[in-house]
Amino acid sequence: MDTAKLHWEKVIKRPDFGAILIATVLFLGFATLDYDGFFNAFTMRNVLHFSAILGLVALGQTLVLIVKEVDLSVGSVYGIGGISYILFEPQLGVIGAATAVLMGAALIGLINAALILRGKLSAVIVTLCGLFFYRGAIYLMTGAGVPRFATEARQHWFNQLLGGQAMGIPNSVWIFLLVALIFHLLLTRSAFGNQLYAVGGDAPSALSRGVRNDLIKTWAFVACSVLAAFAGILTIADRPQTYVSMGYQFELEAIAAAIVGGCSLRGGRGTVLGAILGALIIVSVRYQLVGMGAPSSWFITFVGVLLISVVVFNRLLGVWIYGKQPAAE
Amino acid sequence: MTATTTTHGPADSVVIRTRRSLMRGLVHYRETIAVLVALVLTLVFAVTTNGVFLNHANMVSVTHVTAVLAIIAIGQSLVICAGEIDISVGSIFAMGAMTFLALAPEFGVFAAVGTALLVGFMIGAFNGYLVAYLGIPSLIITLSSLFIFRGIAYMLVQDGALRIPLAERLAMDGYLAFGSGTFFGFNNSVLWMLAFMVVLHLVMFTMPFGNRLLAVGGDAKSATSRGVRVRRVKLTAFIVVGLCAAFAGILEANKVGYADGTTGRLMELEAIAACVVGGCALAGGRMSIIGTIAGAFILASIQSYLVITGTTPQLYLVVMATFVICAALLDARVRQWALRLR
Questions:
Q1: CATH class of B30-341
Q2: Whole-angstrom Cα distance, residue B10 to residue B4?
Q3: Do the beta carbons of residue B92 and residue B246 sit within 8 Å?
């Protein structure tokens, strides 16, 4: 067999192949049909910033999808993370509030994992209830409106670090890239990453090889919730004003980003690069649509169409590569 | 050996037999728990509100909310029974409501209902085709359609709203047949719910289709080996839930004469919650139509109770989530316990 063909096959079999393809086509398209200066500094800054936020949540979702579970509560956790960061700040100070939020998020992840793994409930039901519960909790905590961040708190070095910018690029992007690098190394170079894929790919085999499936899954859920809440903190550090609807339907965007990035609900597939590209695709399309003057409602329709196209494309690609008929069940 | 024979003496056997049949009831009739909880909750709510909960006006509103939610949830229970899930029902609900309101003034009520049902059918068929024939997980497909049709719903009203004034509504031929009219002071929607219940209960538990659907959800491979066309059965389940959700949308739109982009938001979650509370197994193969209706009634009652007692309505989300988790945990425990005693 010639090596060129082997190499080509290796690329095409990457789980994030679809995302790489779409991102390339999309950005070539944007560059040629540049209606309103998509590549100007202001738009680019926003696109990168919001891609970083969505990317963090999508990254957490990717971990959960790799172990063959799903977390529908990330949108509410993102919202409650950001809003409690503001609410806790007067009593706990900036650092204290951030710590409290992240610890709370870890607890949320633990509760999810406990109910799913110990309680033997389906992840869809548990995290759907989580979505409700934390959204309701936001309403109960805030009443009607969300208070603004105090000005002194904004000036705090921690918020400057999270919300400022360096070399013309928002710090949120740098932080996201750092987190992504850590998770990339964790997934590709460490035993833990190997175990994550093993648990999602074939749980009984993983168990027979001595992987503690429940422990690995618990880590995935905890990481997912913590990353979502951290994304909430980053959002607030950049823009101190928000609404009770913060993060509404964000879980859908995060899942869409993860799936576009090559994750499969069947588990065992997904990469960090895929999550990054998935988030970038979704956010940049939103800005391009807004730039073209499309009503904001078009965006969610587009995300849906994109999601369906990607899964159908991946499905057909799989059939084409492996010559398998689509499964009946 | 001797010890067992002594405990199974004639005095004990009646107790044991009753206990066994009770346990078998819990295992076999999945709606038992939901119906019992619904009765107990009704009693508790009635007592703690000094009867306000049970008065006519409140019951009219609770039963209408129950009916609309239950019609969606019944459809959802079929899909869940097939081992799939449809989270786009809220958007189908909105599309049904909007199609009805947009067409009713011009083309008459029945044409509007027909078209709205056609829309539900098409969306259901779209979901079902992609899930059944391409083998893509239903969570992803229906998540996408949730997005797509919610966006289209916003586009249809251009961030405004569709409404028909009351006088105009009442002047239309046949308008009162769908949700606006009353019988004994209750909304017609309740009659529609009962019709759906009877038809789908008979289909599920007396006809071959129901048997096939249960088989597909229980074990798709065995069903295939027995000659069940799994794909077609799943496609049908998705079409039924599309029709149910669109019809529920028609009933609601008919009653309030108003729909905007947020119509039916969170409805998908409530419908799934009603199924879980009603004893449907999310893994598929086990379901109950009556239990699902009891589940919808429980959710509607909790909502109404929070309003009556003057608690912040936002508490509904928190209470509902806690309730559903407890119901799911309890359901599994009670069933295991009952199975062991058998």
A1: mainly alpha
A2: 12
A3: yes
Closest CA to B117 of B280, B243, B306: B243
- Judge whether A261 lies within some domain: yes
Give me the phi and psi of B162, to 5 degrees please. Answer: -100, 135
Q: Is A1 a domain residue?
A: no
The pLDDT tens digits along chain A (329 residues) read 456 666 777 777 677 777 777 777 777 776 666 655 656 667 777 888 889 999 999 999 999 999 888 898 999 999 999 888 888 887 887 888 888 999 999 999 999 999 988 888 888 888 888 988 998 888 888 876 777 777 777 777 777 777 777 677 788 888 899 999 999 998 888 888 888 888 888 878 888 887 788 888 999 999 999 999 999 988 888 877 777 778 787 888 898 888 888 887 777 888 888 888 888 888 888 877 777 777 777 788 888 888 888 888 877 777 776 665 544 33
CB spacing of A304 vs B324 below 8 angstroms:
no
Compute how many other C-beta atoms are within 10 angstroms of the C-beta atom of residue B326: 12
Answer whether A139 sits within 8 Å of B158, measured CB to CB. no
Mutate to test the interface with A, among B134, B263, B320, B325 (most CBs of A within 10 A): B325
Q: Say whether B147 and A298 touch across the interface (CB within 8 A).
A: no
CATH code, A42 = 1.10.3470
Chain A positions touching B268 (Cβ under 8 A) are none
In a domain, A97, yes or no: yes
Using DSSP's 3-state secondary structure scheme, residue A27 falls into: helix
* A325, part of any domain: no
Among candidate residues A257, A255, A269, the one with its CA nearest the CA of residue A199: A269
Q: CA-nearest residue of chain A to B316?
A: A136
A297/B148 CB distance under 8 A: no
Residues of A within 8 A of B322 (CB-CB) are 129, 133
Residue A110 CA to residue A224 CA, distance in Å, equals 10
Tokens matching residue A113:
């994992």
Task: State how far the Cα of B64 lies from the Cα of B145, in Å rounded to an integer.
Answer: 27
Rounded (10°) angle between helices B267-277 and B56-81? 80
Q: Which residues pair with A170 in a beta bridge?
A: A165
Name the domain count of chain A.
1
* Complex ipTM value: 0.80
* Any B CB within 8 A of A137 CB: yes
**Residues spanned by the domain of A237:** 16-317
| Distances from the Cα of A135 to the Cα of A81, A244, A245, A281, B45, angstroms | 11, 8, 8, 27, 25
Residue A38: beta bridge partners? none
Do A238 and A175 meet the contact criterion of CB atoms below 8 Å apart?
no
Non-local (6+) Cβ contacts of A122 within 8 A are: A116, B282, B283
